[in-house]
Task: inverse folding
């Protein structure tokens, strides 16, 4: 996983004195963001997918605008700490956020949030989708998703599936799979997927709906077996794997990464960030770096991202309430 090179001289806890809100007229004259130091908050530790994609976007936008964008990692509480920082920031265009599936799920997983994801943050654009890949121990007697469903139904409660933690897309993929197939498996949460992958290879667990970036090298080396992609269509990174939805209708899961700003950020600023991000995602050099993550560029509009978020909230909220998933 490669990282973008950006100015990391400071991990700012906050910006200095706030400047006047840039309205449409001043934006048209090019006054924003020239001469300003911007901050992109990543609510997860360095080196993860959110961080790497955030740095790629920050680097590209910084070049486009001729300005400095500081990437600040504010991890903790499944992304809630960093997200809350942006929700409470001045809505002047100087602070924005890259976040993942937790924007849709955390309100159902945690007893209390200090922000409202629908009211306190404004959607800008989705940067990328990254599918998960259903992989199994190579000695499990199944060769495809249909055989796994049949095996799980014949052996209720005997299969174990790992995740990178309670409430992650890796975990919820397994919960959704069980719901839609009427199967029952045992969830084994890990702190990340590295150790889970080793236990899968060693036969201590049976399967995982893993991030494709992590899983694919092991599949292609033959140490584990890939069965299906979690998105509704095939992935360009691994076109040999059919969607799980071909066998399990309605199954559609991905890790998605999107930009948000504090609510009440001027629409002209949001529109500019969206337009320039979308243009940046078309750059061949940036796309080549994203290909290394198996990340599919998106660049949808703020309205489309907002609608997508509502769909994700309904889907995962219903599932989380049904199965009673909670993060302590």
Result:
């Amino acid at each position: 996983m490669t990282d973008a090179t950006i100015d990391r001289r400071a991990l700012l806890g906050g910006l200095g004195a706030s400047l006047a809100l840039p309205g449409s007229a001043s934006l048209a004259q090019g006054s924003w963001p020239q001469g300003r130091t911007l901050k992109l908050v990543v609510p997860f530790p360095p080196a993860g997918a959110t961080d790497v994609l955030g740095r790629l976007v920050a680097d590209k936008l910084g070049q486009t605008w001729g300005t400095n964008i500081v990437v600040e990692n504010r991890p903790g509480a499944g992304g809630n700490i960093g997200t809350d920082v942006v929700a409470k920031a001045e809505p002047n265009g100087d602070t924005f956020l890259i976040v993942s599936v937790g924007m849709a799920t955390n309100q159902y997983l945690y007893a209390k949030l200090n922000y409202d994801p629908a009211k306190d943050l404004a959607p800008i654009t989705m940067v990328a989708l990254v599918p998960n890949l259903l992989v199994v121990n190579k000695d499990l007697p199944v060769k495809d998703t249909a055989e796994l469903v049949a095996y799980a139904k014949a052996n209720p409660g005997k299969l174990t599936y790992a995740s990178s933690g309670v409430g992650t897309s890796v975990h919820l993929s397994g919960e959704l799979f069980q719901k839609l197939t009427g199967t029952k498996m045992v969830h084994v949460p890990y702190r990340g997927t590295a150790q889970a992958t080793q236990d899968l290879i060693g036969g201590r667990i049976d399967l995982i709906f893993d991030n494709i970036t992590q899983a694919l090298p092991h599949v292609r080396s033959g140490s584990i077996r890939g069965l299906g992609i979690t998105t509704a269509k095939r992935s360009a990174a691994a076109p040999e794997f059919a969607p799980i939805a071909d066998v399990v209708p309605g199954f559609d899961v991905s890790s998605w990464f999107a930009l948000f700003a504090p609510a009440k950020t001027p629409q002209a600023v949001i529109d500019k960030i969206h337009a320039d991000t979308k243009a940046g995602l078309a750059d061949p050099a940036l796309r080549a770096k994203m290909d290394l993550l198996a990340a599919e560029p998106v660049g949808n509009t703020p309205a489309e991202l907002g609608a997508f978020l509502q769909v994700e909230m309904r889907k995962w909220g219903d599932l989380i309430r049904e199965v009673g998933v909670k993060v302590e």
About this structure: The mean pLDDT is 89. Residues 158 and 185 are 6 Å apart (CA to CA).
